[in-house]
Amino acid sequence: MSEPRSSLPSTVLSRLAELDRQYAQIEAELADPAVMGDHRKVRDLSIKRAALEPTVDGYRRLMALSREAEELRGVIEGAGTGGGDAELAAMAREELPQVEARAAALAEEVKAGLVNADDRRVGSVMLEVRAGAGGDEAGLWARDLLSIYERYAAAKHWKFEPMELVADGSVGGVRYALVNVQGDGVWSELAFEAGVHSVKRVPATEAQGRIHTSTATVAVLPEPEEVDVKIDWANDVVEHVTTSQGPGGQNVNKVATAVHMVHRPTGIEVRMQETKSQQQNREKAKRLLMARVYEHERAKAEAERSAARRSQIGSGERSEKIRVYRYQDGIVADQRVEEKFQLRDVLAGELGPMFAALIEQETARRLAEL
User: Fold this and answer.
1) Could you say which of 30, 80, 185, 278 would form a disulfide bridge with 257 (CB–CB 3.0 to 4.6 Å)?
2) Distant-in-sequence, close-in-space partners of 321: CB < 8 Å, separation ≥ 6
């Protein structure tokens, strides 16, 4: 049986059919008793299913509308050749434009879901926040930025797991933080945070009330599954275990628990000393190394595919200022959209409207490239 006619290009229809197959496979796996006993596997598959469901549901409804339109056309054509019911054909002529209009509108929704489907399937990211220019105030700003993300994660019911934290003991700021965030939609939203965040405000350490500009940089790396990243741990990774080091280089403890890993093919290095357990530090280091190697390969493939403008979303680049937080004006200005946002809302972790505007803009850009 031939596929119903649709306003979507054949390449788009093929991709949608593939997502439909993937969705069916995930549902079959979730019904498998062996999988149901693995809570982490169930969580990961459930996130993927939730990400695919809107697009697959839209595709299936679109195919149903397309079949309905084909049947109506058949009734009309049958009456035209003299072998059909004239009254039924008249009803079909009246109904067909309505069905076609619904199908056309749904096709646009499905296309928008398709270009973002892969982003929604990533349910875990590594979020890095570093204090930038501005001395002690930069550390305080990095701490505040981290708090914004933690509040937003709590509102979204995402898991927010600090993996490494380098505090600035002098004023209570943060020099560096690495957090694993897990949940439905983490990559499709938090990927927009990669870049430089600039704040203009009077620092708590400023005696004369002058406004200072300080920065913090954010990198967001999708955490891949092990099947997504091929690392030969025995031959490609060099591991060193040492005693943990604190500020100034002094030993934090006398037991060798800190883990330093080097990925030979790319030269990527990671260090982990957050816990007093060597095994826990090794596990966290492996996860971070996989994320960085995956991001390295993803960025390389993206550069090879196209020399066109590379979007900041998901690139992990830290050189571009993406947002300014203006305390004196009470607004937040994202450099990528024209809309301004209320500072008090953003500080409270209400990032939803900003992400919605960014996703809408990115979706339009991706649709234009189809």
Assistant:
1) 278
2) 195, 196, 197, 198, 215, 335
